[in-house]
Amino acid sequence: MPADLDALMDAAVGGVGGTDRPGQQKMARAVDQAARSGTHLLVQAGTGTGKSLAYLVPAIRHAVETRQPAIVATATLALQAQIVDRDLPRIADAVAPLIGRRPTFGLVKGRRNYLCLHKIEGGYPDEEDALLDVGEVDRAAGRIGEEVVRLREWAQETDTGERDELVPGVSERAWRQVSVSAQECLGSKCPMVQQCFVERSRAAAKEVDVVVTNHSFMAIDSFEGRQMLPEHDLLIVDEAHELVDRVTSTITDEVTGGMISTAARRCGRMADASAMREAGELLQELLGGMAEGRLLGLPDNLALALTRVRDAARSVQSELKPASPTDNDASRQVARAAIDEIFDNCDRILEGRELDVVWVSQDPRRGAVLRVAPMSVAMLLRDKVFGDRTVIMTSATLELGGSFDSVAGTLGLRGEGGPQWTGLDVGSPFDYPRQAIAYVASQLPPPGRDGTSPAALDEIETLVRAAGGRTLGLFSSTRAARSAAEEMRQRFGDDIPVLCQGDDQIRTLVGQFAADPRTCLFGTLTLWQGVDVPGPACQLVIIDRIPFPRPDDPLASARSQEIARRGGNGFMAVSATHAALRLAQGAGRLVRSSADRGVVAFLDTRMVTARYAGFLQKSLPPFWPTTDRALVLKALTRLDELARQQPTPQAEVEQAADEAQQVDDDEPYHEPADATPELPDTPVAPRAVDAAPPASDGWSAEDDEELRDGADLGLDLAELAEHLDRPADDIRKRLVQLGIG
């Protein structure tokens, strides 16, 4: 019997050089209790809680007691590496004397993340877009050739074959020359199966206490019953706010003309794929002439083209079937995998499953793409993920609008027949009201659809100058980020450098941002969630507008309409929930340590005027709220003056760059330095929701903007009426008056 939890936690905290944190202890006890009772748990652990230790220690204890491994799934490879390379080794060393042995752990990834030794030895055909074949690679002078040479040399040295262990890394194109997908793998028929890096890693995982993997791998293992993960009764999902999107992406399928022609080429002389190739050309021609957006039904000509592709693929499948298992060599397996994908995807789209959404998008590189994805994965998660094990979901942002209900609904935990679960917010060790201000620029006009307004650009300039740079700008679109960056570069000249996402790799940009406090970094989604720059380099976060889903997002609009059809409020369940999660993540970029101080500035007046403003505000960290511009500028100026005396340590610069794709909230908690400033501690109430003077017909400017937003989001008349609490006839009349109905 292992030591009690409190003793294990004390040892682990000491082992990682941390200090006692009440939220961490509370979370650890809740995780331990959930594992024992079998009740699912959603636990929100704010930045600085040290949540990885709070779930890893109970997981180790449970694994030792039950003699079954605990599974930990994360959204990002970076967090996996942090857990396996930093957290678990230190925890294992610290608790070993109490347990009686050193706990063991392992990392399991998808097959594409490992070298394939059979492919290295020439057992597979070259990728169709490779620059070189195996025989020529040693004579190559090009970048891809040099990378492949390096990979072949590394294959003779590595013990794991894991791509992430190769530093510096190589391009995706080069990596494809030495790896295979699960569908392309020969499995037990491979002549090198005994030496296979993947098989060795999975065999080792069956013997360890904690197995670390990613959301997608865990989902595929659950949905398809492949049993790639060892048998277990405890699953911990970190970065759980990402799970629904990651799972949806995993089970999204697509068809393109390029996929079909590539599959046909891979057949070579093994099968006649000419009919499939011709059908694919027809399909691509049809898709190229279609407008982007959701298809509420398949047009007859598109359905006919898909049917021709599917039927031709079925014929090729028959030809490719080996006469015996020994005839199934690597070339045939690769061709079969490509043809199976074409057949399955076409068949799924033609089947027209009730919850599937089909849409057309235009890819700059690949042309027209026909995609299909589930409208909701809630029931799939309920049945396959929560069905036969205890699940712990944790993140810094799970409680939206003051409740776990929104996130729980997307996970399939709510509604009739849902499993038993509890929600817990353990808070954060940070003193948010003292450390940060949430400022809404209420004097600005509501954001329009024509880009950032001149007044908003003036506000950005004023705020950035007061902060002395030190600004992370989070924008709702790439166009808005680039436009604002270009404008600020003209206004600031050489005084304040402005970087923009897309100028270079994210890691490089974040490193430059952290290294030079006067630098600003503008960007979109990756920066909303993946930047961790503590200290004086980031003292102002600007959010240009509420990040609702794009009006033309086929999945968001389909979900909203379906919820409305069932009598719910689609806008709040989908659009507002999406926005609240993104806002919480974005605002969370500001305070990454107990010494951080600063301002999150919202340039969208709907944060205090819209009817859903309260829901959004409750989703944010409890910053000190104000609309007082003069006070905010004074605070930023004071922070800038003090920060000039506190240069960012080089170690923090390097760490910020290395973890640019990850939110790291597990650094040891440090008490604030005496010199850090106290921000004002008397809240200024936000402007009342109905502060704008009503028009003569009862419509305010904010009402009109909400109506435009709702129409852009695809809400129908009934849902607009419900959202705005007005008769449908009034809504219809106003739409006509505004020229949008």
Explain what this protein looks like in three dimensions.
The structure is a single chain. With 741 residues, the protein is α/β, with parallel strands linked by helices. It has five domains: 5-104 and 208-248 and 377-425, P-loop containing nucleotide triphosphate hydrolases (Rossmann fold, 3-Layer(aba) Sandwich); 114-129 and 143-190, no CATH class; 257-365, no CATH class; 432-645, Rossmann fold (3-Layer(aba) Sandwich); 701-738. Helices cover 46% and strands 11% of the residues. It contains 30 helices and 18 strands. The strands form three sheets. The protein has a seven-stranded parallel β-sheet with strand order 3-4-2-5-10-1-11, sandwiched between helices. A seven-stranded parallel β-sheet has the order 14-15-13-16-17-12-18, sandwiched between helices. Strands 6-9-8-7 form a four-stranded antiparallel β-sheet, sandwiched between helices. β14, α20 and β15 (520-523) form a beta-alpha-beta unit. It starts with a helix and ends with a helix. The model is unreliable at 128-141 and 660-696 (pLDDT under 50).
Features:
ATP-binding; Rossmann fold; 30 helices; 7-stranded parallel sheet; hydrolase activity, acting on acid anhydrides, in phosphorus-containing anhydrides; 5 domains; 46% helix; ATP-dep_Helicase_C; 741 residues
What is the topology?
Elements (H helix, E strand, L loop, with lengths): L4 H11 L6 H16 L2 E5 L6 H16 L3 E5 L2 H23 L5 E3 L9 H4 L22 H13 L16 H4 L21 H9 L4 E5 H10 L9 E4 L5 H8 L2 E3 L1 H11 L6 H15 L4 E3 L4 H21 L9 H22 L4 E8 L3 E8 L3 H7 L5 E6 L9 H6 L10 E5 L6 H4 E5 L13 H14 L3 E4 L3 H15 L5 E3 L5 H10 L4 E4 L1 H6 L9 E4 L10 H12 L4 H18 L10 E5 L3 H4 L3 H7 L4 E3 L2 H15 L6 H9 L42 H12 L4 H8 L3 H10 L4
Parallel strand pairs: 1-10, 1-11, 2-4, 2-5, 3-4, 5-10, 12-17, 12-18, 13-15, 13-16, 14-15, 16-17
Antiparallel strand pairs: 6-9, 7-8, 8-9
